[in-house]
Amino acid sequence: MAPPAPVHPRLRFAPSPTGFFHVGGARTALYNWAIARRLGGTFVLRIEDTDEARNRPEWTDGIIDSLAWIGISTDDPTFEGPYFQSSYAGAHIEAATRLYESGVAYYCDLTPDEVQVRAKVSGKPGYDGFSRDRGLEPGPGRVLRFRVPDGTTVVSDLVRGDVEFDNAHIEDFVLVRGNGTPMFLLANVVDDVAMAITHVVRAEEHLPNAPKQQMLWRALGHEPPTWAHVPVLVNEQRKKLSKRRDKVALEQYRAEGYLADAMVNYLMTLGWAPAGDTEIMPWSRIEAEFRLEDVNHAPAFFDLKKLSAFNGEYIRMLPLDEFIAACDEWLPSDWDRAVFARMAEHVQTRVVTMTDVAPMVDFLFLAEPEIDEGSWNKTMSSEFARALLRDTIEAFAAVDFVAAELKTALEEIGERYGQKLGKAQAPVRVAVTGRTVGPPLMESLEELGRDETLRRMRAALDRLEGR
RNA sequence: GCCCCCAUCGUCUAGUGGCCUAGGACACCACCCUUUCAAGGUGGCGGCACGGGUUCGAAUCCCGUUGGGGGUGCCA
Question: Using the CB atom, is residue A458 less than 7 Å from strand B?
Fold first, then answer.
């Protein structure tokens, strides 16, 4: 016997467009991508376009855009598609006809209500095979059902091992609706066969469909693909992430300033861990090390705190010039980029997401600092604050206006009042930046300049003295 | 109800019979550093769901219990 021809690995990712791209879908896409790349195969994008999705092409564009953001780009040679399920409608019906003619599928004229009544009477859930041997011809209102054989179906799953299903528990499922349109299950298998898909990597919720699809593959005359059902992502209630309750749109994380690299890295650690003591690693290593066989079996909690930690880490890993470049789109266009660039190193260690960047340095660019009343009340109420402000204005007017000198001057003034610099800087900080927290003060003042610093301090003093 | 999947610190995980008085990461706490806040450094808290087996030896294998999740459409 001749050795089997080598098969080119083809992994399909088949999202249904719904107006946003789910983080769980992103992880599944990444799994497919990693395996396709490592095996030297192809990542096939096939959109399960519904009627609604067809009327909203922007949904599909959104998916492609989101995939590109996480590094899965249509420009990459590994990428193939996008294809659309609807464009294979003819093949779906053709396959159904073949199945009917070969006797593995049959027509049934029972309505859904009638099926339900029979189930209730017999006490057995689901369709009972009523029309199996009635020899019905195709006709309006009649559905085509698959004749599930006796025995068991074993689904060999890369992450779960062999999963055995007793066919007695699988009803004769519908292939074609009464109106003649094919069901998703059929369409899916026919498309996979047509595209020579070798690996089906998808969420665990599809596992119960696998035996049905596997039977369909065989009925169509093909060996089923390699299956891999990966666990779902859950919320703190341990429920599958839902659009209503949870923040699941990848686009939203992008808009909130999460870095694609951080998101990708974090997503890959849910259900899988690289060898060694560090989870932070570049995609190139993940791609080389990721194995479906090593994916965990239990659902994983999508932890925003840990994502944030990853994001902060990734921001800090950026070379300074890259960080500055990355900040550009997050800053108002009229802010002086040179000023920001000089402060950037102080910003980089203090932000969690890119949306934190602008508010951290806004006082340098605004005509008036935005005074946070809580901060004001906390630091300005004492007599010490007023006196210190007065002395500092005087000192700052005379000193060489650079960070080191400013620091020395403030330190001296603090000593007069028995306060360390940590306490002494607070009123100045609130007067100039409007808040108790922020980038290093002296450096900020130097950047602001003597005139503006003194003006803000005098304004604060005026307010304190009721002027 | 029925079918299927799952079960290690609060969370994500390492662990595939002896290397485990169970390792790492996030979170949390303490200390150090310090110009606020961060960042960084050091240390700490904290877990094999339960009960039976198998074995010289079990987090690891088997059975049961409990608990969680998913699926049960002429949806995708």
Answer: no
Q: How far is CA A152 from CA A38, A107, A458, in A?
A: 34, 24, 84
Residue A127 has φ and ψ, to the nearest 5°, of -75, 135
The amino acid sitting at A68 is A
Q: Please say if A243 is a catalytic residue.
A: yes
- A202 beta partners: A229
Query: CA-CA distance, A446 to A455, in Å (whole number)?
Result: 14
ipTM of the complex: 0.95
CA distance A91 to A77: 27
Cα angle value A128/A130/A134 (rounded, 5°): 155
Contacts of A379 (CB under 8 A, 6+ apart): A385, A426, A427, A429, A430, A436
Our measurement of CA A309 to C1' B44, in angstroms, reads 21
What are the backbone angles phi and psi of residue A160, rounded to the nearest 5°? -110, -10
d(CA A86, CA A365): 53
A168 CB-near residues (< 8 Å, 6+ apart): A150
> Which residue in this structure is represented by tokens 């309006």?
A140
Q: How far is the CA of A141 from the C1' of B2 (A)?
A: 29
**Chain A 382..401 CB hits on strand B (< 7 A):** none
Owner of token pair 């360390």: A420
Please report, rounded to a whole number, the percentage of residues in chain A having pLDDT higher than 90: 87
Model-level pTM? 0.94
Q: What is the pLDDT of residues A7-55, one digit of tens each?
A: 899 999 999 899 999 999 999 999 999 999 999 999 999 999 888 888 8
Residues A405, A411, A417, A420: what is their CA dihedral angle, to the nearest 10 degrees?
160
**Is residue A16 exposed (0-12), middle (13-18) or buried (19+ Cβ within 10 Å)?**
middle
Q: Which nucleotides in chain B have some atom under 7 angstroms from a protein Cβ?
A: 1-8, 10-15, 23-27, 35-40, 68-76
- Determine the distance from the C-alpha atom of residue A370 to the mean position of all C-alpha atoms in its chain, rounded to a whole number: 34
Residue that has been written with the tokens 């950026």 in this structure: A318
Cα of A216 vs its chain's centroid, Å = 33
